[in-house]
Amino acid sequence: MSILTEVELLRRIPLFSNIDTSRLKLLAFTSERLTFENGAILFREGDRGDSAYLILTGKVDISVGSPNGDVLVASVGANNIVGEMSLLCEIPRSATVTAAEPLDTLRIKKDQFFGLLRDLPQMTLEIMRELALRLNNVNRELSAAHAKLRAAGLE
């Protein structure tokens, strides 16, 4: 795939939609293009985070471990990023990410990721927005789960 095609794919990702073409070319050139088969694991909960993955095509399932086995917490598709939280927080991966169908990604290493954040304030704001939305969704789901437990007399 050509750099220009990868730039167009990157531009579809909201995080990169307002970034100038020359920076997107650099990102495409310095990132590693990886494909995954259905069922392949990109990373596991507890792994050390060394990169984030931009999903160009396909879909992933995000799951966390529980005493009763893995629990699916989200599915995300093209034009999303996964794995960035462990880079930002210097913590182990908080979930396992598995290809739910054939997947095309760009792998961004940690130093590249922080270089982008340092050089592109608008990208930093977009990541903050995305993380705030995720936190809001988790809070709503947690509140709903607590309400169900109270209604069932289990809390």
Structure description:
There is one protein chain. The chain is 43% helix and 27% strand. By secondary structure, it is of the alpha+beta class. The chain has a single domain (3-151), classed as Jelly Rolls, CATH 2.60.120.10. Strands 1-8-3-6 form a four-stranded antiparallel β-sheet. The mean pLDDT is 88.
Number of strands: 8
What share of residues is helical?
40-55%
- Major sheet description: 4 strands, antiparallel
CATH-level-2 architecture: Sandwich
User: What's the gyration radius in Å?
Assistant: 17 Å
Q: Output mean pLDDT.
A: 88
The fourth-level CATH homologous superfamily is: Jelly Rolls
SSE map:
Layout: H1 3-11, H2 21-30, E1 32-36, E2 41-43, E3 51-57, E4 59-64, E5 71-77, E6 80-82, H3 84-89, E7 96-99, E8 103-109, H4 110-119, H5 121-151
Helix pairs in contact: 1-2, 4-5
Summarize the structure.
This protein is an alpha+beta fold and 155 residues long.
